[in-house]
Specification:
The chain contains twelve helices and 14 strands. It is of the alpha+beta class. The strands form five sheets. Strands 7, 8, 9 and 10 form a four-stranded antiparallel β-sheet that branches. It has a three-stranded antiparallel β-sheet with strand order 2-1-14. It has a three-stranded antiparallel β-sheet with strand order 6-5-11. It starts with 30 loop residues before the first helix and ends in a 17-residue tail after the last helix.
Length: 397
């Protein structure tokens, strides 16, 4: 703790010495803003990196080169999970990101210049990857370009933060003030020998009162040689507890504003455990899924095209497995979907986070016996024979 503010005014004259007030000045800084923004970006980027790309050929899920590229190894130097995390990080910070496609590998550009055209392909130049600069021109069909520009939101956040940074700094100062001891020290006009200049007097006062002002020590201030210390007990402003809560409330407001700007439920960003299930669902629905759709669309239009897409050959970023699955929560739903042929064996294993079986067995579907297609019922006889679950009326599976 800094030394107390003393001597608002000291004698001034030929045989008097002027002392400077000792105090601590707390500057407003952007640490809170940096913390919240970094936490928001990291949360979104890490969540996206947990999603799985699914690749299909003529409607059948396959795991070939593109699956390996999207999910395992983006390029020789970068894993897919780290690549997509860095991609989302750059997208959220810069509002756009460029991915170069070369030799069945993906490379993330650190900087580039984009030339837009109305009726021909856009061009990309001055591209850098780390310390390496590319001199050639890249065209739209050679890259993946993602754009999610939130310039207006960022501008609004800057204005909000300028106001709140002042409020946070003021509340912290108020809290410090309520916890700080203050007093005044009366100094004799005839100073003892050796204390006849300001610097020596300052050092003497600091050393004498060091232990006395330490809140962790029990101490008595020895008044001598005409030095008289008086404690200032008058308190202004709010109480210390109120100031502490006020500071926390201001910081919570900043969490909420920035979380909303990124599409994150504030409770998730702040780590609250109340209504976590609904908050996570909203987070995935309104924040993660739009980004997944943005990536999926760009991959399909650049790497597959209309002809293959029409034949149901495409890629999809699946976000359904991001959440941790509790068997007790999904058991009934899985059972219902399984006995109505909505899920295959492999679908169920994926939901549970287990390795699919593959092959014909993994693609098997099941349906209960008391359910039958209407056209088959009409072919075999009267519908009334099937009411009640069959001839025996038992409705058994």
């Amino acid at each position: 703790m800094a030394l107390i503010d003393f001597l608002d005014r000291i004698f001034r004259g030929n045989d008097e010495i002027s002392l400077k007030t000792c105090s601590v000045d707390l500057d407003s800084n952007a640490f809170y803003k940096i913390l919240i923004i970094e936490a928001s970006i990291n949360l979104i980027a890490r969540t996206i990196s947990r999603a799985e790309f699914q690749t299909f050929e003529e409607g059948k899920e396959v795991k070939k080169k593109n699956y390996y590229l999207f999910n395992v190894e983006a390029n020789k130097n970068t894993s897919a999970s780290l690549f997509w995390k860095n991609t989302i990080d750059k997208l959220l910070r810069n509002g756009e990101v460029l991915i170069l496609l070369q030799n069945n590998q993906m490379y993330l550009a650190d900087s580039f210049i984009r030339e837009e055209f109305a009726f021909k392909e856009n061009r990309y130049s001055n591209i850098t990857i780390g310390d390496y600069s590319l001199n050639d021109i890249w065209f739209e069909n050679q890259v993946l370009y993602l754009k999610d520009d939130n310039t207006d939101i960022k501008f609004a956040l800057e204005g909000i933060y300028k106001d709140y940074s002042k409020l946070i700094a003021s509340s912290i100062k108020g809290y410090q003030k309520s916890k700080t001891r203050k007093g005044k020290l009366k100094i004799p006009t005839n100073l003892p020998k050796g204390l006849d200049d300001e610097k020596k007097l300052q050092e003497y006062i600091r050393e004498t009162m060091k232990d006395f002002m330490d809140p962790s020590k029990d101490a008595v201030y020895p008044e001598s040689d005409g030095f008289e210390y008086t404690e200032i007990t008058e308190a202004k402003g709010s109480k210390s507890n109120d100031s502490g809560r006020e500071t926390k409330n201001f910081i919570d407001d900043m969490f909420s504003f920035i979380a909303i700007a990124f599409g994150i439920p504030p409770s998730i960003l702040k780590g609250d455990t109340v209504d976590t299930k609904d908050a996570v669902n909203n987070f995935i629905t309104f924040c993660i899924n739009p980004l997944a759709r943005l990536i999926t669309d760009e991959i399909n239009r650049k790497m597959y095209g209309y002809k293959l897409f029409k034949e149901r050959t495409y890629a999809k970023l699946d976000t359904s497995n991001i959440k941790a699955v509790d068997l007790r929560d999904v058991a009934n739903s899985i059972d219902l979907l399984n006995r109505n042929a909505a899920l295959t064996i492999d679908d169920i294993l994926r939901i549970l986070g287990k390795e699919p079986l593959g092959g014909d067995i993994g693609q098997m579907r099941f349906i209960t016996k008391n359910l039958e297609a209407l056209d088959k019922v009409l072919e075999e006889g009267s519908i009334s024979n099937y009411q009640g679950g069959g001839d025996d009326g038992g409705g058994q599976d």
